């Protein structure tokens, strides 16, 4: 090796030593002069909540005018979390005096408890701040005060369709849909990883990444378009609120459905909640959707089904009569009309017009218990409807498996068995649509992020009544509205409406009926012979009225008039 080579090696070595010395010196200066600041930033960057990366598919309300922009039912909103490093803030009283006028109301004691925590470098003070507040605080250059961007689920319409939508909450440290559409379609709406994010360089040198890493979402990600129409749902909710307030009822609900397709235009239950602030509620049972998850004895809205069974089985005709004694003994039980009065020879039509229990029992006895039970099974009582909402329960119809005739007698007028509101709506829709049992749904379309879309539909409809039977019952129900409902005073001259009321005793916790507590129900569809809507309403324990015709006829007719106008349905008579 020549002298030239040795000189080059010595020069290169000197350069490496000099560079290393300068690097170490710079590192030492940074550690001494700005070590605390870098330590603080590192502490904040190493592991922090992953709210800033949260994303989720959008849920849209249906819009009857397809040319107009759709309305968001659930989306993502962004803001900022203000956090402090108790090790760096200095005078906590001064910090409080400076921050509190700029921020939403804070609990002073909680703030000082966090500010004095000397064992933690990260304490969240307030979340979901707007950008203007963040910029105002940052302009003060307060030591130990930091902001992180965050995203959260937001429901622009507040209480509207809360039980249908559900909300997003935490399952351990992963956010997921907890109720309603958010839960049922969680796999479609979910996006990316959840839980915690880890600084990529920290992950290289530690094992924390493997403990906190989650897989990204699948190719089935998409947005959801509901069948729910925001304005129809809002009107339904307002009518329920007014009815509950007027009659002092403790709870209630309603459904508006297209009886031919199963599309649900509106679904509201009371009491309700705001999914934006669900965490403030202590009574978690309020999140349950009673229209799908609770069962009720529905009362006389069952009578049209009993008449339909009898007509379909050929044991009665619309012109049949029976002898009404006011009270009929079935086994050891005495079953009476609502007023206990006898009517003598009575047309079948009057079972609907006057809501006669004795007449319903007569029809059931003509059908026979075995055939009656078969029709009940065919109409889906005792099974799930298949609606695309979670936690659907089956009806309590086990008593129809017995041979006791009294169980079938009470069932003929809607007592002694309990079903979900969505189940009775499905069954009654079969009368409205010509005898077909459809599957109800609250989602119209899934729009996948990859560009394709899927129309939600089940295609498993089955015939449960002859078309002629359904048409005959419809004609009878139209006559009930035109001549008997509040004396025929509420009929619409240009639209035919088929409807029936129901009043049922409520069962207490011991399985006995209250003497003074009732459930009022009402259903109707229109235009009767080509129905676009079936409306179902119920309220529990109204005061100051005995029958559903008093409490729910008004709300039903208001809803009918709104829908006919809103959807510009042409007259049918």
UniProtKB/TrEMBL annotation:
One MF annotation (Gene Ontology) recorded for this entry: penicillin binding
Q: Which biological process annotations from GO are given for this protein?
A: cell wall organization
Q: Where is the signal peptide?
A: none
Which InterPro entries would you find in this protein's record?
Beta-lactam/transpept, Beta-lactam/transpept-like, PBP_dimer, PBP_dimer_sf, PCN-bd_Tpept
Where does the record say this protein resides? Membrane
> Entry's Pfam families?
PBP_dimer, Transpeptidase
Q: What is its main location?
A: membrane
Q: Which residues form the Penicillin-binding protein transpeptidase domain?
A: 254-551
Could you state one GO cellular component term attached to this entry?
Answer: plasma membrane
For this UniProt record, give its keywords in alphabetical order, as a comma-separated list. Membrane, Transmembrane, Transmembrane helix
Spell out where the chain crosses the membrane. 12-29
| Keyword Transferase in annotation | no
Penicillin-binding protein dimerisation domain location is 79-198
| Protein name (Swiss-Prot/TrEMBL) | Penicillin-binding protein transpeptidase domain-containing protein
Organism from which the protein derives: Candidatus Lloydbacteria bacterium RIFCSPLOWO2_02_FULL_51_11
Q: What is the lineage of its organism?
A: Bacteria, Candidatus Lloydiibacteriota
């Amino acid at each position: 090796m020549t002298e030239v080579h040795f000189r080059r090696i010595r020069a290169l070595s000197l350069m490496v030593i000099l560079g290393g010395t300068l690097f170490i010196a710079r590192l030492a200066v940074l550690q001494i002069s700005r070590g605390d600041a870098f330590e603080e930033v590192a502490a904040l960057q190493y592991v922090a909540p992953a709210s800033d990366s949260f994303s989720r598919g959008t849920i849209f309300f249906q819009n009857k005018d397809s040319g107009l922009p759709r309305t968001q039912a659930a989306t993502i909103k962004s803001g900022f979390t203000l956090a402090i490093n108790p090790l760096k803030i200095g005078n906590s009283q001064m910090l409080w005096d400076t921050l509190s006028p700029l921020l939403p109301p804070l609990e002073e004691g909680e703030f000082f408890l966090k500010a004095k925590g000397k064992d933690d470098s990260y304490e969240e003070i307030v979340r979901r701040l707007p950008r203007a507040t963040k910029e105002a605080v940052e302009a003060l250059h307060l030591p130990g005060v930091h902001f992180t961007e965050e995203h959260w689920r937001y429901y622009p319409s507040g209480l509207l369709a809360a039980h249908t939508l559900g909300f997003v909450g935490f399952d351990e440290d992963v956010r997921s849909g907890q109720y309603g559409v958010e839960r049922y379609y969680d796999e479609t709406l979910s996006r990316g990883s959840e839980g915690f994010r880890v600084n990529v360089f920290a992950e290289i040198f530690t094992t924390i990444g493997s403990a906190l890493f989650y897989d990204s979402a699948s190719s089935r990600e998409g947005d959801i378009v509901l069948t729910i129409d925001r304005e129809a749902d809002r009107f339904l909710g307002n009518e329920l609120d007014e009815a509950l307030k007027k009659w002092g009822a403790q709870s209630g609900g309603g459904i508006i459905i297209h009886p031919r397709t199963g599309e649900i235009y509106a679904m509201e239950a009371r009491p309700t909640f705001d999914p934006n602030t669900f965490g403030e509620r202590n009574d978690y049972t309020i999140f349950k959707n009673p229209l799908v998850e609770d069962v009720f004895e529905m009362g006389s809205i069952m009578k049209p089904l009993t008449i339909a069974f009898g007509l379909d089985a050929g044991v009665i005709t619309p012109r049949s009569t029976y002898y009404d004694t006011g009270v009929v003994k079935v086994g050891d039980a005495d079953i009476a009309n609502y007023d206990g009065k006898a009517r003598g020879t009575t047309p079948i039509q009057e079972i609907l017009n006057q809501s006669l229990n004795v007449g319903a029992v007569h029809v059931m006895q003509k059908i026979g218990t075995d055939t009656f039970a078969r029709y009940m099974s065919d109409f889906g009582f005792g099974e799930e409807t298949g609606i695309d909402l979670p936690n659907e329960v089956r009806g309590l119809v086990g008593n129809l498996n017995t041979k006791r005739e009294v169980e079938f007698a009470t069932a003929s007028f809607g007592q002694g068995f309990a079903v979900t509101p969505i189940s009775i709506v499905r069954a009654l829709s079969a009368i409205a649509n010509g005898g077909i049992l459809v599957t109800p749904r609250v989602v119209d379309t899934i729009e996948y992020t990859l560009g394709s879309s899927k129309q939600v539909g089940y295609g498993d409809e089955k015939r449960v009544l002859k078309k002629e039977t359904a048409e005959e019952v419809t004609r009878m129900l139209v006559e009930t509205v035109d001549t008997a409902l509040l004396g025929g005073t509420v009929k619409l001259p240009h639209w035919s409406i088929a409807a029936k009321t129901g009043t049922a005793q409520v069962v207490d916790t011991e399985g006995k009926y209250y003497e003074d507590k009732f459930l009022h129900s009402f259903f109707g569809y229109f235009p009767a012979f080509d129905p676009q809507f079936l409306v179902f309403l119920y309220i529990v324990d109204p005061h100051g009225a005995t029958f559903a015709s008093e409490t729910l006829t008004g709300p039903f007719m208001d809803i009918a008039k709104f829908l006919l106008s809103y959807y510009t349905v042409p007259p049918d008579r």
